[in-house]
């Protein structure tokens, strides 16, 4: 297996650090628009080479694939570049893995009730082409989407006879402090992307209605996260799981709720009220800037906050329905990473590290032919057991928590 | 009386429109950094001439005073320029009126308990100079500060034998809509200045403690405003009344609470949490901008929202203590302006119109020698009755509401 890693940012850098400890591949070309960043990430393993890439150009992706005899393209750039990377891989005859799907466009008239172009629609539109060519695009293979989808497959195959809801629930108790030890507001993930996903209309799937949307921040709910994280206010957010799970796993309803917490929700609403979420440039005292870029610029860079962060992050899937014994069951399958551990062990903060480990495992399963297939497939299209076993073998076990089904 | 009006923005423009109907002056020089704006405001009256001025330069103010034989300088620019306009007037031997006092600087170590440089300190430091020269600087002569301070004098002279608290309370039920009739977030006053005054530590005066500060947004209270405005959440805000009233009116406590409403408070807190209130420039994709300027730039210009605004604004003073009969008394003296009326009658939105009418009245009282004095004086240093009578004569009556003193 010869991998082209597109993007050496937070998640790409953590991917390189995790893969360096495994022996399932021969070479990884670490490629970034910023060659220096690619070189720094590539320096840690003799099987790595650095390259410059323009992820907005499918031809640039294809050319690099040909140059290095790439078998698998690992997309670790912003999802705005998904389509050129996806198409560049196909043109090169390589398989493809990403951690987020092609972007959505809200419905022009009724954005808060009806879907427009959905997450992944542009990729699924090319499904037959990939299948006919015998090539695999494994989409949404991070932690969420990704591990959450693996949990859905596992729940359907081993824990439930009938599934009511597949509810992805994400929460954390991360705290970032400044040099004086005072708590500061510093999101652990790209603020630009967080605004994008949180202010887009959330999507829900129901067996009778299919996919539909709601206004942002709908259906607030306090979810009690395990391993000491505790209760966090969660709201509906547009996310790939809702688009992926119902395609392969039988259920009545699929949702995604993000534990943004009250303060973050309030801040996102305020930014939206003021129009500071806008990406259109405004004129300010002689210069032109996009307000959303200004918001991102005043906050600390998420890639740099690891050493000043404490706490744990939890990704998981809350499944309700009937167990294999036919009795009502409510189960939360989850994966928790402590920032202190990921910083000490890998030098990467827990949120990006937790995202990056999953595509490494998936590529190892594809390299060893434990997973194989053709077409545009989500993680739930494959057997969950070898994936979850490997997650534990990598030193980062997952967990199951039974909840009161009443 | 020959007046130099410095600033032809929202309040300056309304000042010119109100004064045009009065005959107490011979000439007004309408001066602005933007000569076109000065010319537009000056076009409405044959006694007006337009001029260009640099309000950051005391010499520029003095020169214009000499050129036109100015007797009174009316300061209607941002308070950041108060000191050059104040000093330029003194150097020219003119009297001076403003609507906000010189700016404060928070205490470097304990900003939320102790005052640093207080509002007006820089002006009061020159008090003896003005007094010895026999010149008058009438400071804080807008609506708040201004009319509120006149109310304090009136309450002390005519309604109360003993005053417990002089509590300025400002509230409104203004709503701004877009072209489709949807309510939008559009502050009726400069967002830059609103951030400045709301995020500075609020100041309180008590007879035993003197002046002290609290954290922003302290002591939230719902005040029920008259004439259909109704209950609005008010919080402590740094404001000139607290610095002015105790100098001339005997009381136990002086406060200022602004009816920002819950949404506005939440938005200001969010801006502060993110650091978007900062005036220090940040680098954003190759250009440098001040985040606070960006926030102001994305919002509608307050000067333009008049036609799309409905509702009323209320300025007033809540006085508690003992009435002239010695019995407990609680009285709200207030002045309400309906935006529909001010737009129809003057073509100016109610918030700037309500600010501008008060210095016109004050100058008329100075022109007719009903008010006279020397030094740096607040509105409460003068007899309130002729002022309030003239307010009613201008067609904009004030009101008194008795509250339950228990």
UniProtKB/TrEMBL annotation, chains A, B:
Keyword line: ATP-binding, Nucleotide-binding
Residue ranges occupied by any Saccharopine dehydrogenase NADP binding domain in the UniProt entry: 3-137
Saccharopine dehydrogenase-like C-terminal domain: residues covered: 142-395
Gene3D superfamilies the UniProt entry points to: Dihydrodipicolinate Reductase, domain 2, NAD(P)-binding Rossmann-like Domain
Residues annotated as signal peptide: none
InterPro entries: NAD(P)-bd_dom_sf (IPR036291), Sacchrp_dh-like_C (IPR032095), Sacchrp_dh_NADP-bd (IPR005097)
Superkingdom per UniProt: Bacteria
GO MF: ATP binding
PANTHER family, per database record: CARBOXYNORSPERMIDINE SYNTHASE
Protein name per its UniProtKB record: ATP-binding protein
């Amino acid at each position: 297996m010869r991998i082209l890693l597109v993007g050496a940012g937070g998640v790409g850098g953590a991917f390189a650090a995790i893969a360096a400890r495994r022996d399932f591949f021969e070479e990884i070309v670490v490629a970034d628009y910023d060659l220096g960043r690619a070189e720094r990430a590539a320096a840690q393993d003799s099987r790595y080479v650095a390259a410059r890439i323009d992820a907005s150009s499918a031809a640039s992706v294809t050319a690099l694939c040909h140059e290095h005899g790439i078998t698998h393209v690992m997309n670790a750039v912003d999802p705005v570049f998904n389509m050129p990377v996806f198409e560049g891989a196909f043109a090169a005859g390589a398989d493809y893995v990403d951690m987020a799907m092609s972007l959505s466009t809200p419905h022009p008239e009724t954005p808060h009730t009806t879907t427009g172009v959905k997450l992944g629609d542009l990729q699924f539109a090319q499904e037959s082409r990939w299948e006919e060519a015998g090539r695999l695009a494994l989409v949404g293979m991070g932690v969420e989407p990704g591990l959450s989808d693996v949990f859905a497959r596992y729940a359907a195959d081993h824990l439930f006879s009938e599934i009511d809801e597949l509810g992805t629930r994400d929460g954390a108790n991360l705290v970032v402090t400044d040099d004086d030890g005072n708590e500061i507001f510093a999101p652990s993930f790209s603020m630009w992307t967080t605004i994008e996903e949180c202010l887009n209309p959330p999507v829900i799937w129901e067996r009778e209605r299919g996919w539909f949307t709601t206004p942002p921040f709908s259906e607030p709910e306090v979810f009690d996260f395990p391993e000491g994280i505790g209760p966090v206010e969660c709201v509906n957010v547009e996310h790939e799981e809702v688009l992926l799970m119902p395609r392969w796993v039988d259920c009545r309803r699929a949702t995604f709720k993000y534990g943004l917490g009250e303060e973050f929700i309030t801040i996102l609403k305020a930014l939206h009220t003021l129009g500071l979420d806008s990406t259109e440039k405004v004129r300010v005292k002689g210069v032109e800037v996009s307000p959303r870029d200004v918001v991102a610029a005043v906050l600390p860079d998420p890639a740099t906050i690891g050493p000043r962060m404490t706490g744990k992050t939890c990704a998981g899937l809350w499944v309700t329905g009937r167990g294999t014994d036919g009795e009502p069951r409510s189960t939360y399958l989850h994966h928790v990473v402590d920032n202190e551990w990921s910083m000490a062990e890998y030098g990467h903060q827990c949120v990006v590290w937790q995202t990056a480990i999953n595509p490494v495992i998936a590529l190892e399963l594809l390299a060893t032919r434990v997973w194989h297939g053709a077409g545009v497939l989500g993680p739930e299209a494959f057997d969950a057991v070898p994936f979850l076993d490997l997650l534990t073998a990598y030193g980062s076990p997952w967990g199951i928590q039974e909840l009161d089904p009443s």
